[in-house]
Design a protein that fits this description.
Elements lengths: L6 E5 H11 L12 H17 L3 E5 L7 H5 L12 H16 L4 E2 L6 H11 L4 E4 L13 E5 L4 E3 L1 H8 L6 H8 L14 H11 L2 H7 L4 H14 L12 H9 L4
Parallel strand pairs: 1-2, 1-4, 2-3, 4-5
Antiparallel strand pairs: 5-6
């Protein structure tokens, strides 16, 4: 394998929803919904064409609750159930991913981004993470890059800083301050993206903000705890996971 060939990790769950909402309500001859299938498979084909990876894996959320919901009951509680038209396309997408010869990874009790973070951090060489999830921007460093195949956006360290106003290592602090309505995570009241970036530039970290802004420390500290529970990939949580899932990505292209 060429030294420059990246490990490509695909956030299948992120693209599943994005493809479903971005594309028209396509159906096959049997009147079965196929829009998400079409979008996800085209995205995978584009990634393979762009990067010619010898190692690649597609990661999906597993059914059922995660450890975050057990800790914070309101986590994602504002989200409606998955539409039936989308749920019907999950099994066909999984089948097509495997038909392409790609490992499909799904671990109960955790989310796709936790698995992606674990695999990416264990890799010594270059890693490309294909996702539309801003939470994963915290992983970007000298060898990890994010690419949004649907929009064409590529995020390295410089682009993360340009987009959010903070470097990757401050993304968790940034999210703690602004919150995330899509995940039902509260942030600090009246603290938007510009204010969060300004505070972090001025005081270096969320700990620095808390130390300086005594009158708001309780609100900020609460948001900080929630962010660490819900945004930081739980590397330690995978210590007991079977090595077979990780082994699939290491062997891809070597057989």
């Amino acid at each position: 394998m060429a030294a420059s060939a990246p490990l490509v990790l695909v956030d299948g769950s992120s693209y599943l929803y994005r493809a479903y909402h971005a594309l028209p309500a396509l159906t096959n001859d049997a009147d079965e919904p196929t829009g998400a299938v079409f979008g996800v498979i085209n995205m995978l084909k584009r990634l393979i064409g762009d990067y010619a990876p010898q190692r690649m894996a597609v990661v999906f959320d597993a059914p059922g609750p995660t450890f975050r919901a057990a800790i914070y009951a309101d986590y994602k509680a504002n989200r409606p159930p998955m539409p039936d038209e989308l749920a019907a396309q999950i099994a066909p997408i999984h089948e097509l991913v495997r038909a392409l010869g790609l490992p499909l990874v799904s671990i109960e009790g955790v989310e796709a981004d936790d698995v992606i973070a674990t695999l990416a951090r264990r890799e010594d060489g270059p890693v490309v993470i294909s996702t539309g999830d801003k939470d994963l921007a915290q992983l970007v460093d000298g060898h990890i890059t994010l690419v949004n195949t649907m929009s064409g956006e590529v995020l390295d360290r410089e682009r993360v800083h340009e987009k959010f106003g903070v470097p990757p290592e401050r993304i968790v602090d940034y999210l703690a301050l602004v919150g995330d309505t899509s995940d039902n995570i509260p942030g600090v009241p009246k603290c938007g993206p510009k204010t969060a970036a300004k505070w972090l530039r001025a005081y270096d970290s969320l700990d620095g903000v808390i130390a300086y802004v005594d009158t708001r420390s309780i609100l900020i500290a609460t948001a900080y705890v929630l962010a660490w529970l819900c945004f930081v990939p739980a590397f330690y949580h995978f210590l007991g996971a079977s090595e077979s899932e990780w082994g699939e990505t290491r062997r891809l292209g070597d057989e």
